[in-house]
Amino acid sequence: MDLRDLYQDIILDHGQHPRNFRAQEHPSHFANGHNPLCGDRVTVYVTLEGERVKDVSFQGRGCAISQASASLMTEILKGKTLAEAEALFRGFHAKVTGGAEPATPDALADDMERLEPLTGVKSYPARVKCATLAWHAFEAALRSGATGATVKTE
Ligand code: ZN
Fold it and tell me: How far is the CA of 65 from the centre of ligand 1 (A)?
C-alpha cells in the first residue's frame, strides 16, 4: 500500500467527518483563527480542568487540510495536560515546517504518529498555515481565556 494514499484517506475522512465539531456553551477558553491566504476559519473551544484539557472542540470552514487538522487536533488534545499539549504543538510545528524536531516524550509517540498524515504539507509552504491554524487558535485560546481572541496566520 502506498502510504501517501493512506494519509490522503485520513485527511479526507477527517475533512468530511470532522470530530468534535461543535461549539461549547461555556468554554473556559476560546479563540478564532483565520488564515487569509487560503480563507480557512476555525473557532477552537477549550475547557480546562486544572492543568488538563477536559474538552476541546471546534467549528469552522475552509480547505480539507485545515478542517482535518483541527479535527485530529481535538481528538489528540482531549485529556492531555497543558505541558503535553505544548510538546505536541512544538513537535507538530517542527514536522510541518521541516524544522529541527524537539524531543517529544515517549508517552506522546503514538499521538505524534497520528499527526504524520499532515506532514506532507511541508513541501507546500502555503499549506503549512492551513495545517497549523487550529493549533495556533488553541494556543491563542489558552492565552486569552473566556473572553476569546482572534489569531491570524501571516
Ligand atoms: Zn487552507
Answer: 6
